[in-house]
């Protein structure tokens, strides 16, 4: 599992440029000859395990936050627009990598820099080593996309790198798609696009699939670091079952089903209430006339940074929980 996560996090794939991520995932899941694989207009990668039972949609998003070149000055420095939810304190003097392979570092106007007042993105720039506008234009152009450069750190049970949000969810979905699932349910493994800019891929794919039950796999914040905000989620205590976030309240039958499945299979779990942010489940829940939808979250520290950190036990137990849910006869649950 670590190797899958490492491979996927090293790929640069900001929102709207997920093709390289999708290519890598498709190559992995093609090993399962029982899957029907396709891509839709939005670039979502959809793998179906056909069955005669209820339609289950499990989604993880492929895209990451990033930076888009909007201006190149006379000295070759790049001004950029942010793609997705950038936290400015996380990006100063960090390395970035463009989809073309060009690399650089984010600098900040020194006269405006003050750690007590973190500058906005319009006070920052990307330095790709160019000495002039002409030299820079040989490497990038207006609209070129970059993401944070990956530095994978293996700490044993825990790993740290960029884009665990949500390549760790994609890796979990890959493992599920390659596993032997004993279920008559009609299962759709959906690797979605443009989550970071408005849950767009999940919205269109849910409309096309029209599932009876849906689950998003994503990361969530933790409350286990020194002087952190109050939150009952910690690394290593199990995957988190979402109760509520800023975009959705999960219906009680879904929460109960997830909890009962975890307890029946002796899988540790936590309950998650996230006061800021949401997931693909927000739009899956409100698809057409409504869908029973929930979220399995991987507790992750330092979200939207180059050093997102999670615990592999939470990842593995999240896969076990999802598999047990897929193998449940949902018709007996009234879904």
Number of domains: 2
Rounded to an integer in angstroms, the radius of gyration calculated over CA atoms is 20 Å
Count of distinct strands: 17
How confident is the prediction overall: mean pLDDT?
95
Secondary structural class: alpha+beta
Give a description of the structure:
Strands 1, 2, 3, 10, 11, 12, 13, 14, 15, 16 and 17 form an eleven-stranded mixed sheet that branches. A six-stranded antiparallel sheet has the order 5-4-9-6-7-8. The protein is an alpha+beta fold. Helices cover 24% and strands 27% of the residues. Strand 16 and strand 17 form a beta hairpin. The protein folds into two domains: 2-64 and 162-333, Zn peptidases (Aminopeptidase, 3-Layer(aba) Sandwich); 66-148, Beta Barrel (Elongation Factor Tu (Ef-tu), domain 3), CATH 2.40.30. The protein has eight helices and 17 strands.
